[in-house]
Amino acid sequence: MIVAKEQPYYQSPPGEKYSPVSRPRPKVRPWERLVLTVLVLLIFALGILISIFYSLILITGYQITRMQKELAELEIQTRGLAEEVSRLSSLERVEAVATTRLGMVKPDERQVVLVQAANGAQDPPPESKPVEKPRADDTGKGRAPKGQHWILQALTDLVIHRSQGHSG
């Protein structure tokens, strides 16, 4: 069995055609349409600006992380280089290199020469004479300051003496 769907039937008075009831549409003025269009464009532009700012924040965060990693690597490298410098400049190593590679020997008591650095005044250079090894009862004259090796002190004094223009 086939059942037909009931459809409402409107009957209009004779002579009139059926027309659905239409509501009057409000008239949109041109300037209102322009304002609405500008608002939509502003909201769209604001969305683009927000997305650009978020992407800039993400890029900056990535750069900060990368720089922090690079800084950590450089700090590790700096510590390694500082350790290498302290190892290479140790007095034991300098002495070993001087005796093995350069063929130097430790001086005798007769070969040690006391060299005094000239002060700012033009003092005549002191005569070179052999110096005995310092003893416990010495006053400390001619010795290197504490913490500095006596060979290094002698070389420093010699360089200062030569740089002041003294020959011999």
Explained architecture:
By secondary structure, this protein is mainly α. It has two domains: 31-89; 107-168, no CATH class. Helices cover 49% and strands 0% of the residues. It has three helices and no strands. The chain has helices at residues 30-88, 91-100, 150-163. It is rod-shaped. The protein starts with 29 loop residues before the first helix and ends in a 5-residue tail after the last helix. 0% of the residues are buried. Residues 135-144 have low confidence and may be disordered.
Number of strands: 0
**Overall residue-averaged pLDDT value:** 78
From the spread of the alpha carbons, the general shape counts as rod-shaped
Low-confidence stretches: 135-144
Order of helices and strands: HHH
Distance between the termini: 136 Å
Q: How many separate helices?
A: 3
- Number of individual domains: 2
Content-based structural category = mainly alpha
Radius of gyration: 49 Å
Question: How large is the share of residues in beta strands?
Answer: under 5%
Helix content: 40-55%
Keywords:
168 residues; 3 helices; 49% helix; 2 domains; mainly alpha
Question: Could you give a short description of this structure?
Answer:
By secondary structure, this protein is mostly helical. It has helices at residues 30-88, 91-100, 150-163.
SSE order and pairing:
Elements: H1 30-88, H2 91-100, H3 150-163
